[in-house]
Write a structure and sequence with these properties.
alpha+beta, four-stranded mixed sheet, two-stranded antiparallel sheet, 6 strands, globular
């Protein structure tokens, strides 16, 4: 599992923060997430909580990428109040083991 990384994000990863934040705000979900695949396509998602299933935003974003034919991922961002999403990180690492997963708060600051 990847620990949250406190670092300055480059421009492409900062775009993922914007997508994750906007998705969370639009849906009112506890989490928003965004991933970028190896072709440069991005996927943004919110966490899902239904009586029959619960998925983290990162799990949904990874599922969207895989169902769209993504062969790999370059980066992932989770926008939430607290760091941590072991199931989501595991889903990311099912596709690529060295992908950075960033956890950021409402201000876009990396959580540790």
């Amino acid at each position: 599992m990847s620990d949250p990384q406190a670092t300055v994000l480059d421009g492409e990863d900062a775009k993922l923060v914007t997508l994750a934040r906007a998705t969370r705000a639009r849906t009112g979900a506890p989490q928003g997430a965004a991933v970028r695949d190896t072709d440069g396509r991005t996927y943004a998602a919110a966490s899902v909580s239904l009586p029959s299933m619960s998925l983290s935003a990162l799990q949904v974003a990874v599922a969207m990428a895989v169902s769209s034919g993504a062969q790999g991922l370059e980066a992932a961002v989770v926008h939430a109040d607290r760091p941590g999403d072991s199931a989501g990180v595991a889903a990311v690492h099912d596709i690529a083991t060295s992908v950075p997963v960033y956890f950021v708060d409402s201000a876009g600051v990396a959580l540790t």
